[in-house]
Design goal:
By secondary structure, the chain is an alpha/beta fold. It has 11 helices and 19 strands. The strands form 5 sheets. A 7-stranded mixed β-sheet has the order 15-12-11-16-17-18-19, sandwiched between helices. The chain has a 5-stranded parallel β-sheet with strand order 4-7-8-9-10, with helices on both faces. Strands 1-2-3 form a 3-stranded antiparallel β-sheet, covered by helices on one side.
């Protein structure tokens, strides 16, 4: 029986062989540590350990009692060993090296973005993952995921526009901290889904020592650990792409707005107007989409604009709007003065009415009064920046499906 136990514990070991020659090296090392301890202390030692042996890959439990042996009462010179074992406790699960834990996309959103995020989740047939948000009396805040993200792809939906309760800076800071939290907790990949990306107006230096805030936002997002960014209708797409080193997915809204406006513009002569030269390419893309969906030509026009210290100047207008319905198209409506200035120029030149269309409806203080002119038959914005402002004839166009398609494209699994 003793030989069988030694064979189970150490493998086939001939008489007089050293422990270093044992086939089961792990168990031999364990025995060596036990024996050395007994020799050093002169005290008996009882240990228990488990090991995997044999082709059955079963766990066997051993009890080993080591007693010091000494001659003439001196320090121990040898060790007497007693061994007992128990039959297999449980089978060890076997794993296929090719099998991996599936990476399930985790879709997160803050409470202020819940409506838009729910629309995206419905398109993806996913549930929003739970998030805990806490506000502290001194203005600080905390947000954390309430499910495990280790090894998973995490998508955080957060639009970075300000309102009466949370400023742009508050929202940006919350997003940065949450991305850092996802990285700290082992997310395999972090994608920031930002319908409206803030601080994009300053993408180039127009005066000495001007900041490049568009680039700085990209840099701090990357610094906290973002791997990919999805956004829509940036103020200057070229500057934004140059600012990011990680992958950027830039979505456009012109198809959605064209689809929304086609029913009411059918049968009318239409001109698409860019309110300034910076909006010319964006307005042209919308004009092309509208022309395609209407199935007939749509004319274009543009307005010159120069802004310095908050003062807007420039009177140059090019294009035909007399007796036509106009659509003024831009990336955002903030105060509304740029859009209304273009609409007024169209009215003076004989336009019938005007639709003001912009992807992001920020609607700063005074925008409601500025946009209340009866010449404006509709103000159309996407649902990228939820606003509580009461704007006359406001129409919201849902673009959540575009974000859902982008998420579906960059997620590693079909879902």
């Amino acid at each position: 029986m003793g030989e069988q136990l030694i064979t189970r514990l150490l493998g086939g070991l001939p008489d007089g062989a050293r422990l270093s020659q044992a086939p089961y090296r792990r168990n031999a090392a364990r025995c060596r540590r036990v024996f050395d301890r007994v020799i050093q202390t002169g005290e008996p030692l009882l240990v228990e350990f488990a090991t995997i042996q044999g082709n059955r890959r079963a766990i066997l439990s051993y009890e080993l009692l080591a007693l010091p042996l000494c001659e003439h009462g001196d320090a121990p010179e040898a060790v007497a060993v007693g061994v007992s074992w128990k039959s297999a406790v449980r089978a060890v699960p076997t794993y296929n090296a090719r099998q991996k834990t599936p990476r399930v996309p985790r879709l997160f959103a803050f409470a202020r973005d819940a409506s838009f995020a729910q629309a995206v989740a419905r398109s993806l047939r996913l549930e929003l993952a739970p998030v805990e948000e806490r506000e502290f009396e001194d203005g600080e805040h905390k947000a954390r995921p309430l499910i495990d993200v280790a090894g998973q792809d995490a998508f955080i939906i957060a639009s970075l526009h300000g309102d009466e309760r949370q400023s742009v800076n508050d929202r940006l800071c919350r997003l940065l901290f949450f991305i850092g939290t996802l990285r700290t907790n082992g997310a395999a990949r972090i994608v920031a889904v930002i319908p409206y990306l803030c601080y994009q107006r300053k993408d180039r230096q127009t005066k000495p020592y001007d900041p490049l805030t568009s680039r700085y936002v990209a840099q701090i997002l990357e610094a906290v650990g973002v791997d990919q960014v999805i956004t829509m209708e940036a103020h200057n797409i070229a500057a934004l792409q140059n600012g990011f080193r990680c992958q950027l997915i830039h979505l456009e809204s012109h198809d959605a707005f064209a689809h929304h406006l086609v029913p009411r513009l059918r049968g009318s002569d239409v001109t698409v107007v860019a309110p300034d030269m910076g909006a010319a390419k964006r307005a042209e893309a919308f004009r092309t989409a509208l022309e395609s969906q209407l199935g007939r030509p749509v004319e274009k026009a543009f307005m010159e604009k120069q802004r310095s210290m908050g003062v807007v100047t420039g009177d140059l207008f090019a294009g035909n709007v007399a007796g036509r319905r106009v659509v003024v198209f831009d990336d955002m409506i903030s105060s509304g003065t740029t859009m209304m200035r273009a609409a007024e120029a169209c009215r003076w030149r004989g336009a019938i009415d005007a639709h003001l269309v912009a992807t992001h409806g920020l609607f700063n203080a005074g925008a409601a009064d500025t946009l209340s002119d009866p010449f404006i038959c509709a103000v159309c914005v996407a649902n990228t920046a939820a606003s509580e402002k009461q704007i006359s004839r406001l129409e919201i166009v849902d673009v959540s499906a575009a974000f859902a398609r982008a998420i579906h494209t960059c997620a590693p699994l079909k879902f």
